[in-house]
Design a protein that fits this description.
This protein is of the alpha+beta class and 112 residues long. Helix content is 20%, strand content 27%.
Length: 112
């Protein structure tokens, strides 16, 4: 099956994160830090299921997407991860905007 047909069969969620360079894992750089709005213990809501507030349990670097993912508590016992723009802070009704990579270095300088 041609690759463009395979892409059309994927869910819209995966189309948001194309696989450009994804076959080359990359460790986080010096300026790559988790979004400070999503620290451990922060209450968030999933954009696809906003009815329940959930705690952020952990932030991890995604070696193939070159950005942080956030592990949130679930009722099923599994520990799925989410990208920042798939989450909403509790009490807000808009998804978080992913911070540009340069933002993290400025944030680090201000609060360190």
């Amino acid at each position: 099956m041609p690759s463009h047909k395979r892409l059309s069969l994927l869910s819209p969620w995966w189309k948001r994160y194309p696989d450009v360079n994804s076959s080359f894992p990359q460790e986080p750089g010096r300026n790559d830090v988790p979004d400070p709005r999503l620290s451990v213990g922060t209450l968030v809501r999933l954009c696809g299921k906003p009815d329940k507030a959930r705690k952020v349990l952990k932030a991890e670097w995604h070696r193939y997407r070159y950005r942080f993912v956030y592990i949130v508590e679930t009722s099923g016992g599994s520990l799925p991860y989410w990208f920042a723009d798939q989450l909403m802070l509790d009490g807000e009704n808009q998804p978080l905007q992913e911070q540009p990579r340069w933002f993290n270095s400025i944030w680090r300088k201000i609060f360190s």
